[in-house]
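In the current project phase, we have settled on a layout for protein records. One protein thus recorded is set out beneath this paragraph:
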Amino acid sequence: MSLTAEQLAALMPDATQVESDEPEMESSLHYFQLALLVSCLEWLWREQNDFFIGANLTIYFNRQQLKNKDFRGPDFFLVKQTEKRPRKSWVTWEEGGKYPDLIIELLSESTENVDKTIKKDLYQNRFRTPDYFWFSPDTLEFSGFRLVQGKYEEIDPNEFGWLWSESLGLYLGIYEQQLRYFTLEGQLVPTPEEDAQQQRKQVEQVQQQANQQQRRAEQLAAQLRALGIEPEA
């Protein structure tokens, strides 16, 4: 007996509990790059609660695909205007039909062709993802595309080779052989560790300036006393 779509849906598991079904990353370079993309954006937007970042996480976009497990998810994706909470996977029909606003694929020898063809077409035609980028941690190949009237158009780089993401409101660009975020003003978006280090440097600089001012004041007071003038307290 054939089942209706409603009957089939009733037999499916609670899709909110469906696990991700992603393979391991290709190399330690890929792991580190993915962690860098996640940590920097999470830190930059730490006061916001209206986004979700998926890292090597499966996106389920129809029940047949869920049943067959015939799709490998993006390496990195961002969904805006959604609840910031942990998820085992991204199930579009459990998320109000929302698809990623931005996707980044980390190229490797085994995935490069699929990322540039099949996945690009899927993200353009089915997901309608506004921003799509790919980056190779091995070769540093880097390209980005913006959805314009339903078709991906390549994003032109600025003078530094960075590509602007409308979805992020940030540039993506290569810095020290890694893909990083940059603000509109050209500032590198730091990791939490880099931010803490920068704050320590700023505190040290303020302390150094205060010490220099104190030494100059003491030197001036000594010069005045040598002239028989008692400096005012």
